[in-house]
Design brief:
There is one protein chain. The protein is mainly α. The protein contains 5 helices and no strands. It has a single domain, classed as TIM Barrel, CATH 3.20.20. Helix content is 48%, strand content 0%. Helix 1 crosses helix 2. The longest helix is centred in the N-terminal third of the chain and has 21 residues. It starts with 29 loop residues before the first helix and ends with a helix.
């Protein structure tokens, strides 16, 4: 989730394989990578306090926002799928949910979601 940021799989762009598509993703460029890594680190701390993973926290937050929400996370293994399903058991208080929104308002993530060529296709 979060292009791998929430899983803590890397601490620098150099941790990505040479041909990894994320190397050309705007969220992984220069200072944007550092900004987004700091956000992921903050989420990791909050998740640890809650006794869950950052990905579970993100899914629980989405589920808390709307009873009709149906997140569709990508998953790379059966273990991750089972982890994602357990997010439905995590309860957030309104205070916890709003605290996250206050700490990370919309637009906090640095960089476009996709490289410019893909953004042109999406915006057509």
């Amino acid at each position: 989730m979060g292009r791998g940021f929430l899983g803590g799989r890397f601490r620098s762009v150099d941790d990505l394989a040479p041909g990894d598509w994320r190397r050309s993703n705007p969220r992984f460029q220069g200072g944007q990578f550092a900004t987004n890594l700091a956000i992921a680190d903050w989420l990791r701390e909050v998740a640890e306090e809650k006794g869950c993973t950052p990905a579970q926290l993100a899914l629980a937050w989405l589920l808390h926002r709307s009873e009709g929400a149906i997140p569709i996370p990508g998953t790379s293994s059966m273990t991750r799928l089972e982890e994602n399903i357990r997010a439905a058991d995590i309860r957030l208080s309104d205070e916890e949910a709003h605290g996250s929104e206050d700490a990370l308002p919309k637009g906090s993530v640095a960089g476009e979601r996709y490289a410019p060529a893909l953004m042109e296709i999406i915006n057509d």
